[in-house]
Every structure is written in structure tokens, then in C-alpha cells.
Specification:
alpha+beta, Lipocalin, 3 helices
Length: 155
């Protein structure tokens, strides 16, 4: 009898092993303005009141610079979850086809995230990743499709 009870107890979900963390990007659309911005949830790291994460900025389909087509770019951010500031640390362009770089540091000082809708949405996600829900994309190509669809819908 004890063996049956023990077997039933071990088979219940409460005793199941937690699912392993998902590997690879987990991108969530956070805002749409001039660009569509996606937060990369898998990069969120919290240390005290500071949260760091990477985001993807998606450009419209015909975006070019210097005669070259671009999908958008990646940026690393640091947010102070207590004071509400945002600090964009860099930008790395993503050319059509997925080639990244170069990385350009952003030397501007931290600023109140509330004055920039994109930064405010990213800060909210970085400081409370549980609010994200399901990822909208798990790879760069899908993130570009999601971002561009959001840009078209916002027109």
C-alpha cells in the first residue's frame, strides 16, 4: 500500500522535474513606432535594481542606408528598475540577410525611460519578465516578420 501511495505521489505534477530553460532567443514585441521593437527575454539579467537585456529594432521592408538594405539592429540596454531610468549601451546594425555589425557604443547618459515609449516598454519587460507572456518569435527571421507585420498594421 505504501509503495502505491509513494508511486502516486511521485507521479503527480507537483513532484515533476521543472522544464529546462528554453535555449535561444525568446523575442516579444514591446512597441511599434518608427520601428518595431522586440525584447529578447532570454538575455535578461538582473542584479539588484539593475536589469540588462538585448532588444531588436526592426525597420520597414524598404529601409536602406548608404545604398544597403537593413532589417534593423540589436542594442544592449541597462535599466534601473527602482528609479525608472534607461541606458542604451550600443547599437549593431543587421543587414538584409542577417549579417550583424559593426557595434557602435552609445555614450549618452541614462535618462528617464518614461520619456521614450520604446525604452519604457523595454524597461517594463526587463524589470518584470513574468509579464511577457509567450514569445512572438524564437529566431531572427521570425522576429523580422513579426516586426514588419506590426509596422504595416500600425500604418
Amino acid at each position: 500500500m505504501l509503495a502505491v501511495l509513494l508511486g502516486l505521489t511521485l507521479a503527480t505534477p507537483a513532484c515533476a522535474e521543472p522544464a529546462p530553460p528554453r535555449e535561444g532567443p525568446q523575442l516579444v514585441l514591446t512597441s511599434v513606432g518608427r520601428f518595431a521593437v522586440l525584447a529578447e527575454l532570454s538575455t535578461i539579467r538582473r542584479e539588484g535594481d539593475t536589469a540588462r537585456m538585448r532588444s531588436l529594432q526592426v525597420a520597414e521592408e524598404d529601409f536602406t542606408a548608404g545604398g544597403e538594405a537593413y532589417w534593423g539592429g540589436w542594442s544592449w540596454w541597462a535599466f534601473d528598475c527602482r528609479t525608472g531610468t534607461a541606458d542604451r549601451l550600443d547599437f549593431a546594425s543587421v543587414r538584409q540577410g542577417g549579417a550583424e555589425g559593426p557595434i557602435t557604443p552609445d555614450a549618452a547618459p541614462p535618462y528617464p525611460a518614461a520619456r521614450d515609449p520604446d525604452a519604457a516598454a523595454l524597461r517594463a519587460m526587463a524589470c518584470d519578465p513574468a509579464s511577457a507572456g509567450e514569445a512572438d518569435a524564437d529566431n531572427l527571421a521570425d522576429a523580422i516578420r513579426v516586426g514588419r507585420a506590426a509596422l504595416r498594421a500600425a500604418e
